[in-house]
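The following block was generated as part of the benchmark described in Methods. Ligand: FE2/S2 (inorganic) cluster.
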Amino acid sequence: MKASITLRVDGEQRSLRIDTRTTLLDALREHLGITSAKKGCDHGQCGACTVLLDGRRVTTCLSLAVACDGATVTTAQGLARGDELHPIQQAFLDHDALQCGYCTPGQICSAVGMLEEVKAGHPSFVTEGLTAPDELSDEEIRERMSGNLCRCGAYVNIVAAIREAIGKGATP
Ligand code: FES
Ligand code: FES
């Protein structure tokens, strides 16, 4: 069965007709040619396919595109404003927070979504009490980013990049 849907992807309105079983990841990559979100496991286990869907981070390999009809999708490549990188993107560059780069678009979208969750007061598994702390410890950052795996093991620099971006005014 096929369905017609529209998505606003990285600021552009896109229409597509797809099989209703198509994941959002395949809709982006195979139908729209937007390859920023990566297919790592295709099973919701690695986070490489993470984008912001109406501002919230989601794994697109577990999302059906047809259920996202009308939504706003922001991939890592849509985070920059012209030539100006998003603070998280810049911090990843400055801290060399990548090696092969395959996990990086997902890490960056996840970090942006994570900081919004903190701003909204969401606790993590390691948070004491029921609201997010004002300042994120490295343990909090690691826990909140634990859905995004990096086979190159760039974790130390990823945490450092996120910490610096927060220090430079990225939320929270
Ligand atoms: S490709 Fe979606 S979580 Fe791994
Ligand atoms: S930089 Fe290679 S998987 Fe993360």
